[in-house]
Amino acid sequence: MTRAKRLYGEEKTAATRASFERKIEEMSATLKCWQKNKARGEQFWPVSLMKLAAWEDIPKGIFRWKSNNITKRDGLYGDLVASYWKLQQHAKPFLGRVARPNSTQALKRHNQALIQQNTELIWSVMELRDALVRADPKNEALSRVTFP
Questions:
Q1: Tens-digit pLDDT string for the chain (148 aa)
Q2: SS3 string of 104-147?
């Protein structure tokens, strides 16, 4: 665990356990969301113990670890490993499929984003043209191009 790298003894164990517990809590919240929506969302889900170990989300207090001893069923964190496997069992119906967004709504959002981008680009061009006119008011190229 990168955060606990320089910790030793009980401090390291406590930091590792806290991160592991937060991972289990986050997985549980994700699973509840999927169950409520009856479909898998786009949230991260560690599909293996290796992905669980590599999972890192620092703002949420979730840190990765490198030791394989952490994910042993009969190890120090055996209760949390059992919780992980229990969540995996409950998540099985959702893991094979991903919810498809409503294509019409997705296209409308994309269209709105493109309209906004186009508006910003037109505004930038107008500002640049005004700056060029101020710098060289008698420029022939600018006088030939009509612009609103």
A1: 445 555 556 677 788 888 889 989 999 999 998 888 888 878 888 888 888 888 888 888 888 888 777 888 888 888 888 998 999 999 888 887 655 656 777 788 889 999 999 999 999 988 888 888 888 878 777 777 676 5
A2: HHHHHHHHHHHHHHHHHHHHHHHHHHHHHHHHCCCCHHHHHCCC
